[in-house]
Amino acid sequence: MRCLALTLLLLIPAVAACTDREAQAAQDAAMMAQDPVVARALNDPLMTDPDLASRNEANALIGFADSSALPTFAATTSAAQAAREAGRLELLEGGAIPDLPLPGTDARGKALGPMASPADLIAALGAPASCARQLDQNFTYAADLPPVASIMPHGMVLQAGGADTQICGIRIVRYQTAAAIEDVLEYHNAQAVRAGLRSLRYKTPEDIIAASGARDETLVVHARKPAKGLTSVDLLYRAP
To answer: Does residue 170 share a domain with residue 84?
Structure first.
């Protein structure tokens, strides 16, 4: 009998510890569900993991796919409407919104996306191939954009990079928005036209705005719908 009592006494702390761990796990799960950024910070694998070799390719701008912890906002109808209205209100401050051109019939380069190489991005801009080696990934580039290459309101930046040399004044930003593709194209087309660029639209290999101006100034915007319902946007700009 005494042995049984001792066994029960030993089991009580173990059961309590399990209960505490389960309660803490539930609390952590609830916190991460509310804040995907925290989820990403807590669950991202260590950078010493050899499986992460694709996450950083020297100074390659795009070296990894978008995090599964994103997006931090829902792709709802109300969110899409709010993003559309915010974009149009900003544009209307500058006057009538230029009409979105009809799509051209000729294919325009390659589709881009998260796994596009630096060479693909540079080619889309029509910049010298040597600029691919100059690209550096840094979110500060997204905070240093001219009005012609501004990000649509309610957009969430996923990646940003660029280069600042005499022949490679480049900004490349990937962002997501709840706005529809047509609204994204309208926004970037208007910014290009107001900056004096000649803006063209393409439907293949994906939805594209391609605008160019004097001294090789170029704005290229690729938009696509990912599985999560948000519009993914690749914004590429080359300064004159």
So the answer is: yes
Q: Report the number of distinct structural domains present in the chain.
A: 2
Q: What is the pTM of this model?
A: 0.71
Tens of pLDDT, residue by residue over 82-104, are 999 999 999 999 999 999 999 99
Per-residue pLDDT tens over the stretch 61-73: 444 344 444 556 6
Instruction: Compute the radius of gyration of the chain from its Cα atoms.
Output: 24
Question: Do 39 and 78 fall into the same domain?
Answer: no
d(CA 163, CA 169): 6
Residues 127 and 217 grouped into a single domain: yes
Say what the alpha-carbon torsion angle 61, 65, 69, 70 is, to the nearest 10 degrees.
Answer: 70
Q: Between 1 and 115, where is the model more confident? A: 115
